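WARN no homologs supplied; continuing
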Amino acid sequence: MSNSDEFAKDFLSHFLAPYGEVKRIKIEPPEPEKVDIFRQEHLEHIEGLKNLDLLLKMAETPFILRRFSAPLDVDGVQDCLGTITKVLVALDNKSFQKKNNFREDTIIKMWILTPTVSEDVLSGFGTQNKKDWLPAFHFSPELFHTCIVAIDQLPQTPENLWLRVLGRDKIQQQAMEELEQLEYDNVLRAATLELLYNLRHNLKDQEGLDEEDNRLMDRLETLYKEDRDKAVKKGFEIGFEQGIKEERQKEIKSIILARFGTLDPELERIIEPLSALPPSEFAPLLLQLSRQQLLLRF
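OK structure emitted
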């Protein structure tokens, strides 16, 4: 796996962290291989994920992620199909199921992210669109459990902004401009920049990130530092913990009112524990869990 692919995997798995985990599973034989599978562990949350943004919809079943920096070609698709085939064969083995805690009826998807893909490649592998998915999602025949996501075909909507950040050239630039246009204390902007800034430092000593990913991470790091500087001026920096907490509570109240239209005593009770979490954790929870799920969790 390239560092570019690793960056995309870490980005999505961290963003979806409240709902599951990534397990690195070794596939044996004929060629020992480790495959990262994102698995939804909190089954009671699945209902709350439906009909929300694309990343959450993709995570409704265990999945494998591959991201290509260049346009997807035939060799790339064949490589991905080889990986998902090995996983599907392993899943038929009862000892493998038991060792990795998979049920016999587990369904695993392979999501292939590509900046663009030709019609020849799509038609050559028999892909089709599905009515409940955007046209950018090209599904293989059912038995291959694979979907090609053409990032350049995604509409410019907030729901897929975080996916378009992983695109290329004008698509990525547009997504970055949308991210920059959000208010600096917008919880989604804050959560995304915090996550990507941390990933930047986790990968800074590694080789293999391509030039565009390096430019993206440099730009995100600059934005993150600018936001931190603005926070200092408003008393949100370290040393002003109470100010940070009050601002977080204000943001939490705003999201609750926007989602549920009211702030009754039951919902007020969850503000205090939620404000102890960083934006990267409380924002996805507030936006994705149902009222009942929030009350049960906090």
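The first strand starts at residue 20 and ends at 27.
OK
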